[in-house]
Automatic annotation (TrEMBL):
Gene name tied to this protein: xth
The protein's name: Exodeoxyribonuclease III
Molecular-function GO terms, alphabetical: double-stranded DNA 3'-5' DNA exonuclease activity; metal ion binding
Cofactor note: Probably binds two magnesium or manganese ions per subunit.
Homology family: Belongs to the DNA repair enzymes AP/ExoA family.
Site features described as Important for catalytic activity, chain residue numbers: 222
Site positions (Transition state stabilizer): 149
Domain of life the protein comes from: Bacteria
Binding, Mg(2+): 2, 30, 147, 149, 251-252
InterPro entries in the cross-refs: AP_endonuc_1 (IPR004808), Endo/exonu/phosph_ase_sf (IPR036691), Endo/exonuclease/phosphatase (IPR005135), ExoIII-like (IPR037493)
Pfam families (alphabetical): Exo_endo_phos
Classification via SUPFAM superfamilies: DNase I-like (SSF56219)
Site, Interaction with DNA substrate: residue positions: 252
Species of origin: Streptomyces radicis
Segments forming domain Endonuclease/exonuclease/phosphatase: 2-252
Amino acid sequence: MNVNGLRAASRKGYLKWLATSRADVVCLQEVRAEEHQLPDDVRVPEGWHAVYAPADTPGRAGVAVLTRRAPEAVRVGFGAPEFAKAGRYLEVDLPGVTIGSLYLPTGEAGTPKQEMKERFMAAFFAYLAELRGKAAADGREALVCGDWNIAHREADIKNWRGNRDKSGFLPEERAWLGRVLAPEDGGWTDVVRALHPDREGPYSWWTYRGRAFDNDTGWRIDMLMATRGLAGRATEAFVERAASHDERWSDHAPVTAAFTGW
């Protein structure tokens, strides 16, 4: 779940949502705060263990992972020096599975921001291969949850024709995500799309401008990418879309999946 600022989200409904969630693990993106800036009930909600990776730039990015049981190990970053303190990746080990929270850069076509996004993508693709290989060697599974900031297919964005030259739907970005998912290359599985192969969406982000949410003019950019064995155990996956615009506590909605044998 991209919370679009955890302090703001906690005032709007995040804690209420979390209190009713049956999840074993919750991955947060765009936390935009360091731990000492968060009230205790937000920083470590009752019944949860929480780990954070803030960005070195105040008020930007930041990821977190909340788990019902204490993680066996915690790792910040993915080995790329440029992004070591960017607050964009954090992973934890639980019995039999490694779970990562990812906030891939947004980018802006034709600008240095897009060049940075492309460097991140290149470095993270190499890490995904490393993560999948290590998980297989150790007899484990892996799951990378987060805001990937790329809509892969036309079915993943309502207004795809009007966004073909925009970051998040550029041909090279879509091709990169295709490599992540290709069985002969990246080898990861998009859990939501695997369970809903023929439908549009389900979208997970809507701009606050206009009536995008009311008209469901959204993007599916928040995804759960699983290793093949774990993906095969997915029983359901869905977007927890708010009932109305006024009930939203972020411009994103939680994306949830359930797996057998947890």
